[in-house]
Amino acid sequence: MKTLLIVEDNPQDELLIRRALRKAALANPVDVVRDGQQALDWLWREGEFAGYPDTGLPAVVLLDLSLPRVSGLDVLERLRADARTRLQPIVVLTSSDEERDRLTSYAHGANAFVRKPLDFAEFAEAVARIGVFWLMTNVGPA
Q: Going by C-beta distance under 8 Å and a sequence separation of 6 or more, which residues neighbour residue 39?
């Protein structure tokens, strides 16, 4: 069963994402990292994740843009520049409503851009749709 990687520094948003996935009956394993550098290290099994077993790439990465250490846009750009993660499905899940962030995300290779709704029910529905598509419907590159 493929993993979902959440790159989110806000514990409350992480909790909402996990709750929405459970509500949608998606039982895939979920890993969470709190900043952009951890995301890169997790995906490439470097730094603090160097000793972790290589379980392959996740089915999808849910990537926030406003992250400490390395921004979400920088993470996206670096993942697309590396042969190991060039095809990794990445969904930008962000509070940003800026057109510039949306366009830059797509220019850097995001597969989707989803704005986090402020209403919990709408947020849960958006995450459930993302999960069902990327974890159950989509056939990924690996």
A: 5, 7, 33, 61, 63, 67, 70, 75
For the chain, the maximum distance between any two Cα atoms, rounded to a whole number of angstroms, is: 39
For 49, the 3-state DSSP assignment is: helix
Structure tokens, 107: 């220019």
The residues spanned by each domain of the chain are 4-137
Q: Model pTM greater than 0.85?
A: yes
- Tokens 């846009």 locate to 73
pLDDT per residue as tens digits for the range 111-129? 999 998 888 889 889 999 9
- Using one digit for the tens of pLDDT, what is the confidence trace for 76-122? 999 999 999 999 999 999 988 889 999 999 999 999 999 988 888 89
* CATH code at 4-137: 3.40.50.2300
Q: Which residues, in sequence order, are CB contacts of 79 under 8 Å at separation 6+? A: 40, 43, 61, 85, 86, 88, 90, 109
- Is 3 within 8 Å of 59 (Cβ atoms)? yes
